Automatic annotation (TrEMBL):
Xref: Pfam families: ABG_transport (PF03806)
Transmembrane domains' residue ranges: 47-65, 115-139, 151-182, 189-209, 237-256, 290-307, 327-346, 367-389, 409-429, 436-461, 467-485, 497-522
Chain residue ranges for the region called Disordered: 1-28
PANTHER family membership: P-AMINOBENZOYL GLUTAMATE TRANSPORTER, P-AMINOBENZOYL-GLUTAMATE TRANSPORT PROTEIN
Molecular functions (GO terms): secondary active p-aminobenzoyl-glutamate transmembrane transporter activity
Stretches with biased composition (Basic and acidic residues): 1-17
Name listed for the protein in its UniProt record: AbgT family transporter
Highest taxon above the source species: Bacteria
Organism field: Corallococcus carmarthensis
C-alpha cells in the first residue's frame, strides 16, 4: 500500500505550473511487505488454495502410507492423565478406508468445526448491538474518554486479556478496534492489525487465569510425575512471567502499530462515518443509559447462575467456576446474550429499534452477511479434518521433537530450540493442547534432568505457541480477519493480512524469546508459590 503521494512544482512550456505526482521512496522493510502483499493477493481465492492443499495432502498421505511411516512416542491422555505409549502411523486418504472417511464425513467434518457455530452464535448478539447503534456509540464514548495516544495501547491490552473469553476477541474486539480507529480518523486496518496481534500472537499469556491454563498445567504435572511423582506445579506457576509478558508485549505491539504499520498504510481514503468526532446526541446518551441497566441485568442473571456454591453453571463435580465448567464452556453464549440484551436496550432508549421484529431482522442481517465466510470455513473444515486423519502433523511433531532431544544441546539452547520447534509446527498444528500432550512428556523430564524448572518449560511452550497464530493459515479465524479487512479495502486478501501481521510476528517472537532467556538466566520466579 502506498503512502500519500507528494507533489512538486515543475515548469511546463506554454502552461502554468502544475503539480506532478512523485511517489515517495520506500524503505527496505516497506518494499518487502509490499511485495509480500502483492504476491499474496495474486494467489487464487483461499477456497481454491485449500482445495489444492487437500489434493496435495491426499497424494502425500498415500506416499507416506506406502513407505510405512510411523512413530512411537509417549503422550499424556488429557482425560485419564496417564502417560501412554502410542504408535501413530501415516494413514492414506486414497485407500478404501480413507475414501469412505472423505465421502461419508463431509457433513460431520463441517459440524465438528467449532468456529462455524461460535461465529454464528456470536453474531446474533453483535448484529443486534451493531444495528441498534450501540457499537458505534460505545466506540465514540471510548474515543471521547481515552487519551488519543493511549488508544492503541488500550486496544492491544484488552486484546491480550480477551483470551479469558476464548474466541470473543476475534469476533468482537477486532472489528471494534478497526471501527474505533476509523472514528478518530486513523486507518482502520491499523486498528485491526494491532488488536489481531494482541488477540492471536499473545494468546497464551494473561494476567488472569483462563481455561487453557488448567489443561496445560494438568498435562505438565502428568509429565513431571514421570520423574518426580511427588512434585507438581499449580495454575499460577507462570503468573509472574505471564504478567511481565503482557506488559512488555502490550508496549511492543503498540509501538509496532504506531511506528511501522500505520505509517506504511498511510491516510485512509475510503468511506468514513458521518459521525466521526461528533458528540453523542441526547438519544444516544439515553440509549447508553438503557444499555447500562441492561448490562447490570445480565450480570445479575449470570451471577445468580454461577457465583453461589452449587450454582448450575459451576462444575457439578468439583464446584469450580474457572476451568472445566458449564460457565466457561458456554462463555460465548453469555457474551451473545450480553450483546443482545444491551443492544436491544440501547435501541429502545435511542429509538433505533422499534419492536421485536427489528431485533429479529438485525439478527437475520448479521447471519446473512456471513455467507461467503461460512462457505470458506466449509472448505477449511474439510482440509483440517482430512489433514488430521492422515496423522502427518503428529509424525512431523514427533520426528522434529526427537531430533531436538538427541541434539546434545545445553539447557538454555535446548529451551530456545524447543521454542523454535513449537513455533514452526504451530503453522500446521495450531491446537495448543494436542501439541503440549505430545511435547510435555518428552521435554519436561528432559529439561528437568538438566535442572530446568518445569514452569520454565511451560513458559517456553507459551512463547512458541503464540506469535505464529497471527499468520497461520490453519488458524480457524484467519479467514474471518480477511473478511474484516475487506470491509475497508475491497481488494484485501490473504497477502494483505500476512503483510500486516508479519512485523508483529517477527518482533514479538524475538523479543519474547529474549525475555524468556533473561528470565531463565537471572533465575527469576516464574509464578506464585
Amino acid at each position: 500500500m502506498a503512502k500519500a503521494a507528494h507533489f512538486d512544482d515543475i515548469d511546463v512550456p506554454g502552461e502554468t505550473k502544475k503539480k506532478q505526482r512523485t511517489p515517495p521512496k520506500k524503505k527496505g522493510m516497506e518494499r518487502v511487505l509490499d511485495t509480500i502483499e502483492r504476491v499474496g493477493n495474486k494467489v487464487p481465492h483461499p477456497a481454491i488454495i485449500f482445495v489444492a492443499l487437500i489434493a496435495i495432502v491426499m497424494v502425500l498421505s498415500h506416499i507416506f502410507y506406502k513407505l510405512g511411516a510411523s512413530v512411537t512416542y509417549e503422550t499424556i491422555n488429557p482425560d485419564t492423565h496417564q502417560v501412554e505409549q502410542t504408535t501413530t502411523a501415516a494413514k492414506s486418504l486414497l485407500t478404501g478406508e480413507g475414501l469412505r472417511f472423505m465421502f461419508a464425513g463431509v457433513v460431520q467434518h463441517f459440524m465438528d468445526f467449532n468456529a462455524v457455530g461460535v461465529i454464528i452464535v456470536a453474531m446474533l448478539g453483535v448484529g443486534v448491538a451493531d444495528a441498534a447503534g450501540l457499537v458505534g456509540a460505545l466506540i465514540r464514548k471510548l474515543v471521547a474518554v481515552a487519551p488519543a495516544r493511549a488508544l492503541t495501547y488500550i486496544l492491544v491490552f484488552v486484546g491480550i486479556l480477551s483470551s479469558i473469553a476464548a474466541d470473543a476477541g476475534y469476533l468482537v474486539l477486532i472489528p471494534l478496534a478497526a471501527a474505533a480507529y476509523l472514528t478518530v480518523g486513523r486507518h482502520p486496518l491499523a486498528g485491526l492489525a494491532a488488536s489481531f496481534a494482541g488477540v492471536a500472537a499473545v494468546f497464551t499469556v494473561n494476567i488472569l487465569i483462563k481455561p487453557l491454563d488448567g489443561i496445560l498445567t494438568e498435562i505438565t504435572n502428568d509429565a513431571i510425575h514421570i520423574m518426580a511423582p511427588d512434585r507438581s506445579i499449580d495454575l499460577t506457576a507462570n503468573f509472574w512471567f505471564s504478567a511481565a509478558s503482557v506488559v512488555m508485549l502490550t508496549i511492543v505491539v503498540s509501538l509496532i502499530s504506531d511506528k511501522l504499520i500505520e505509517p506504511r498504510l498511510g491516510p485512509y481514503t475510503g468511506e468514513k462515518p458521518a459521525t466521526t468526532g461528533a458528540k453523542l446526541s441526547p438519544e444516544e446518551s439515553r440509549g447508553l443509559k438503557f444499555a447500562f441497566w441492561g448490562l447490570i441485568g445480565v450480570l445479575v442473571f449470570f451471577g445468580l447462575l454461577a457465583l453461589p456454591p452449587g450454582a448450575p453453571l459451576r462444575n457439578p463435580e468439583t464446584g469450580a467456576l474457572v476451568g472445566d465448567s458449564p460457565f466457561m464452556n458456554g462463555l460465548i453464549v453469555a457474551i451473545t446474550i450480553l450483546f443482545l440484551v444491551t443492544g436491544a436496550a440501547y435501541g429502545i432508549g435511542a429509538k433505533t429499534l422499534k419492536n421485536s421484529v427489528d431485533v429479529i431482522k438485525a439478527m437475520e442481517k448479521a447471519v446473512a452477511g456471513l455467507g461467503s465466510l461460512i462457505f470458506l470455513l466449509f472448505i477449511i473444515s474439510q482440509f483440517i479434518a482430512l489433514f488430521t486423519y492422515t496423522n502427518m502433523a503428529t509424525l512431523a511433531a514427533v520426528k522434529v521433537g526427537d531430533a531436538l532431544e538427541h541434539a546434545g544441546l545445553g539447557a538454555l539452547p535446548l529451551l530456545v530450540g524447543f521454542v523454535l520447534v513449537v513455533a514452526v509446527l504451530d503453522l500446521i498444528m495450531t491446537g495448543a493442547i494436542p501439541k503440549w500432550a505430545i511435547f510435555a512428556p518428552v521435554f519436561v523430564p528432559l529439561l528437568m534432568r538438566l535442572n530446568v524448572d518445569p514452569a520454565a518449560v511451560l513458559a517456553a511452550y507459551r512463547v512458541g505457541d503464540g506469535p505464529f497464530n497471527a499468520i497461520s493459515p490453519l488458524n480457524a479465524y484467519f479467514a474471518l480477519i480477511v473478511t474484516f479487512a475487506q470491509k475497508y479495502q475491497k481488494d484485501a486478501g490473504v497477502g494483505t493480512v500476512v503483510a500486516l501481521m508479519l512485523p508483529y510476528v517477527i518482533v514479538v517472537f524475538a523479543v519474547w524469546i529474549a525475555l524468556l532467556v533473561a528470565w531463565q538466566v537471572l533465575g527469576l520466579p516464574w509464578g506464585l508459590g
